[in-house]
């Protein structure tokens, strides 16, 4: 069965909420309320397998040429099948389409991102990030995630 990626719609909010909540409870993703998801639904993409949502990811604009991959997660039982990479490709295509050449992420999954062409960079080069998500993060002053960046040509 083939996985397809598409833009999320308001009908996906409950599924996205549950998927992200599962990872947020494990401390590997920031939680997103249903209200926030509804408001930001245009930034989300989902991966579908036989009409079931098995993954999600979003693209948040941080600056004139910089965008961040957020809330990237594949449901348990569907990891390691290339779905995460497919979603990343889809998010990179969207960044390209919107003429946003710098794509970054803050992550614990450094090797996954390296496999997808990202390189590790110093977090300090992204002051824009601090004023969006980081201000709401409990680990704001002891961030243990790694920054990764991909430049699109
Ligand atoms: C990280 C995550 C998105 C990867 O998605 P996935 O669908 O399992 O990954 P893929 O199957 O596309 O893997 C692509 C490649 O990366 C490798 N890879 C995947 N996860 C990896 C990991 N944790 N460490 C090292 N390599 C990894 C795979 O082996 C594969 O390599 P290959 O192409 O040589 O076979 C998924 O495991 C996940 O949801 N993790 C929990 C949430 C999370 O941490 N998200 C990141 C937030 S920024």
TrEMBL record:
The cross-references to PANTHER family, in alphabetical order and at most eight, read:
AMINO-ACID ACETYLTRANSFERASE (PTHR30602), AMINO-ACID ACETYLTRANSFERASE NAGS1, CHLOROPLASTIC-RELATED (PTHR30602:SF12)
GO molecular function annotations of the record: L-glutamate N-acetyltransferase activity
Where does the record place the N-acetyltransferase domain?
A: 3-153
**Sorted alphabetically, which Gene3D superfamilies does this protein's record hold?**
3.40.630.30
Q: Could you state one GO biological process linked to this protein?
A: L-arginine biosynthetic process
Entry annotated with the keyword Transferase: yes
One Pfam family per UniProt: Acetyltransf_1
Task: List cellular component terms (GO).
Answer: cytoplasm
| Name of this chain's protein | Acetyltransferase
Q: Which CDD domains match?
A: NAT_SF
What SUPFAM superfamilies is this protein classified in? Acyl-CoA N-acyltransferases (Nat)
Q: Which UniProt keywords apply?
A: Acyltransferase, Transferase
Question: Which organism's genome codes for this protein?
Answer: Paenibacillus abyssi
Q: Per its UniProt record, what InterPro entries does this chain match? A: Acyl_CoA_acyltransferase (IPR016181), GNAT_dom (IPR000182), NH2A_AcTrfase (IPR010167)
Q: Note whether DNA repair occurs among the keywords.
A: no
């Amino acid at each position: 069965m083939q996985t397809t990626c598409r833009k999320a719609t308001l009908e996906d909010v409950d599924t996205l909420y549950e998927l992200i909540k599962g990872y947020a409870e494990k401390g590997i993703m920031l939680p997103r309320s249903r209200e926030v998801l509804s408001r930001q639904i245009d930034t989300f993409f989902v991966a579908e397998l036989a009409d079931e949502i098995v993954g999600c990811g979003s693209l948040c604009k941080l600056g004139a040429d910089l965008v961040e991959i957020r809330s990237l997660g594949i449901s348990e039982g569907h990891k390691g099948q290339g779905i995460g990479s497919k979603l990343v490709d889809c998010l990179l295509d969207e960044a390209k389409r919107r003429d946003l050449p710098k794509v970054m992420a803050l992550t614990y999954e450094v090797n996954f991102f390296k496999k997808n062409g990202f390189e590790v960079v110093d977090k300090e080069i992204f002051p824009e990030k601090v004023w969006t998500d980081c201000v709401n993060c409990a680990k704001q002053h002891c961030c243990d995630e790694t920054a990764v960046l991909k430049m699109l040509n």
